[in-house]
Structure prediction request, 53 residues.
Amino acid sequence: MFGKAIEMIQEGTLNLNGSVSHTFPLEQAQEAFDFADSHDPSIRKIVLTFGNN
Prediction:
């Protein structure tokens, strides 16, 4: 199902508004993981972006 979910996100047929609370570029992955470990209540989902996203 993971592949289907990726496809739906790319097509814009899966609405993720409000699901992702924070985005980090891949180069800041460690910062993102440290932030996730902080258990900040504002964190819902963290996404790592690749390339020119």
Observations:
- The first strand starts at residue 22 and ends at 25.
- The mean pLDDT is 87.
